[in-house]
Amino acid sequence: MSINWEEYAKPAGDYVRWKPENEGDTIKGVITSVRVATMPDGNKYPSLTVDRNGEPVEVLVSQSILLRLMAEKKPNVGDTIEITHTKVEKLAGNKTLKHFEVVVTQGAPLAESDIF
After folding, report:
1. H/E/C letters for each residue in 1-50?
2. Which residue from 14, 59, 77, 101 has the least number of CB within 10 angstroms?
3. 30, 116 in Cβ contact below 8 A?
């Protein structure tokens, strides 16, 4: 069995993953890459790399509301994105649903040499 390692490729350099825990948690920056991330269970989700003040931060778009908002906004490389975790809704069965606001400002596409 062969593995398609390209699906696991990460941007060059150190990075952190944005994990919103608290209402009001926000990330804002320029999108430098968009890829598909494959989870251990086989599910695939969009993953953005956002340049936050010179630091690459991965944003895994796996939350259902965030996924829907991204599909509506269709952000691209070179766009400035701001994502804010706005609230947590409690659901039946001890489950929760995170709510977000997403603002995308269209930018000029970055040249590959401008990314890192």
Report:
1. CCCCHHHHCCCCCCCEECCCCCCCCEEEEEEEEEEEEECCCCCEEEEEEE
2. 14
3. no
1, 106, 110 from 19: Cα distances, Å:
33, 24, 25
**Cβ atoms 60, 45 nearer than 8 A:** yes
Assign domain 16-108 one CATH number from 3.40.50, 2.40.50, 2.60.40, 1.10.287. 2.40.50
The pairing of strands 55-60 and 44-52 is antiparallel
Q: What is the pLDDT of residues 2-38, one digit of tens each?
A: 556 665 565 555 568 899 999 999 999 999 999 998 8
CB 45 within 8 A of CB 75: no
Q: What is the pTM of this model?
A: 0.78
